[in-house]
Design brief:
Bound molecules: iron/sulfur cluster
Number of helices: 2
Strand content: 15-25%
Number of domains: 1
Structural class: alpha+beta
Number of strands: 4
Strand order of the largest sheet: 1-4
CATH topology: Alpha-Beta Plaits
Largest sheet: 2 strands, antiparallel
Order of helices and strands: EHEEHE
Distance between the termini: 13 Å
CATH architecture: 2-Layer Sandwich
Shape: globular
Helix content: 10-25%
Length: 68
């Protein structure tokens, strides 16, 4: 599972783009994009986003959020 982006909150600061070790996050014309196939759900970006715009794809119990 990949993280999810809340575009209503994202302020396009670019912080998560620089952090992602997989290069899964990109910024294009102030619009954040995610390549889900690259994301390992490490949550570095989730924990670093200053406005809480990124959500993990998997819960702390290992469950897929999409399935809940
Ligand atoms: S760190 Fe948060 S606010 Fe900044 S670009 Fe990423 S998702 Fe958007
Ligand atoms: S969870 Fe990790 S791998 Fe996925 S986009 Fe965020 S920093 Fe990159």
């Amino acid at each position: 599972m990949a993280v999810r982006i809340d575009y209503g909150r994202c302020i396009s600061c670019g912080g998560c783009v620089a952090l992602c070790p997989q290069g899964a996050l990109r910024m294009k014309a102030f619009h954040l994009t995610l390549a889900p196939e690259r994301c390992t759900d490490c949550r570095l970006c989730v924990n670093a986003c200053p406005v809480g715009a990124l959500w993990p794809g998997v819960s702390h119990y290992g469950e897929d959020y999409e399935a809940l």
